[in-house]
Amino acid sequence: MNYVFPPAPQASVAIQGSDERVPVRRIFCVGRNYAEHAREMGKDPDRDPPFFFTKPADAVVESGETVAYPPETENFHYEAELVVVIGTGGTNITEDRSLDHVWGYAVGNDLTRRDLQLKAREQGRPWDFGKAFDRSAVIGPIYPAAKIGHPDTGTIQLTVNGDVKQSADLADLIWSVPEIISILSHSMTLAPGDLIMTGTPAGVGQLQVGDVCVVSVDGLGAIETKIGPRES
């Protein structure tokens, strides 16, 4: 096949303990999936149907990399997340079979231009500029479900410069991983390489140049991101 210019490189994520990698197809994100975070964002945490937004595959950043403070924001936020990696595609997946489609899990950080997100929300517009910007999805090494099982409890925590900012339990998710997968699959066909960032606990806040942000989930290790100077 002839292209008028070279295709973009395939985005991918590391696998813990392996030199193989998982190709990233799409990144789905669940909004306000912890009750206390919903409240701090001024919303009711009742179990209304979950909503989703996306990030481009090439927004992926690996642990240990420096992320420049992004343009057009003065309110740059962290969001600790559990990431689900789809390994077997499907549509109209039932909850009781959802976990059969999971290849593994990872730690994530949904970086957010909060001022742009909130402005878009107030105007009834999409969140893309607040959520789907360059290098906005920090994803740690993937732990295969075949080795670790399917975590549904355990501490998820985020620190900035050693100070704890977010701390919760995976059991606090409003919508569980099986429910999220089933709901998504009834709207569109899931495929291998799709990632799902499952939502963040309460305690979101600002990052500044020079900050070091660490996110950890029990059984999945920790990821670290340093915030670099704003790009000129």
Largest sheet: 8 strands, mixed
Beta-strand percent range: 25-35%
- CATH class division: Alpha Beta
Number of helices: 5
Secondary-structure element series? EEEHEEEEEEEHHEEHEEHEEE
Quick overview of this protein structure:
The protein is of the alpha+beta class. The protein has five helices and 17 strands.
Walkthrough of the structure:
With 232 residues, this protein is of the alpha+beta class. It has one domain: Fumarylacetoacetate hydrolase, domain 2 (Alpha-Beta Complex). 14% of the residues lie in helices and 33% in strands. It is built from five helices and 17 strands. The strands form four sheets. Strands 3, 4, 5, 8, 9, 11, 12 and 15 form an eight-stranded mixed sheet that branches. A five-stranded mixed sheet has the order 6-17-16-13-14, with no helix packed on it. The chain is globular, with a radius of gyration of 17 Å. It starts with 11 loop residues before the first strand and ends with a strand. 38% of the residues are buried. GO terms for molecular function: acetylpyruvate hydrolase activity; isomerase activity; metal ion binding. Belongs to the FAH family. Residues 27-227 form the Fumarylacetoacetase-like C-terminal domain. Keywords: Hydrolase, Metal-binding, Plasmid, Pyruvate. One of its GO terms (biological process) is carboxylic acid metabolic process.
